[in-house]
Amino acid sequence: MEPEKELRLRLRFYKTTSKSVEEIKARCENLKAEVAPDFNIKTLDNHIWLSIGALKREKYSPNLHLEIEPMEDGNTAVNGLFGPDPVLWTMFMFLHFIVAGIFIIFGLIAYSKWTLHQNFALDISIMVLMVGCWFTLYFLARRNRSRGIPQMQELEELMDRILY
Fold first, then answer.
1. Is residue 11 helix, strand or coil?
2. For the whole model, what pTM was predicted?
3. Complete domains list, the chain, with CATH
């Protein structure tokens, strides 16, 4: 997987393994203590969350969510999703909603002023500024993801230890 060439901010992948769901869960339980200070492994039903341990965690550290499903042929399907730290993701989404709200409000104000034949240049300039904020948030997220690529590779290696 080459995340630096992907356009999406949250990377998804699909794999299959010959291990059963029970074997994968047992492997997770065995690895929890072995990798404890560097990585966190959490399991619930057919979901596994892998994250960087508290000692190595940065604000851009990724998480890996795995969903394991048994297949009819005895193999196991693994759906994976790399994502940012949930707190950071929530902050970015909150900022996006604020920017979108300001954009919509000033769009409505600009439309009202246009219909009343008043000057609406300030409102349009604030809307353009909000579009600039959207691009800034996007590029900040891309930069954080690129800074987290080495840790993504570490999580992928841990995943491979669990699945194969």
1. coil
2. 0.79
3. 1-164 (3.30.530)
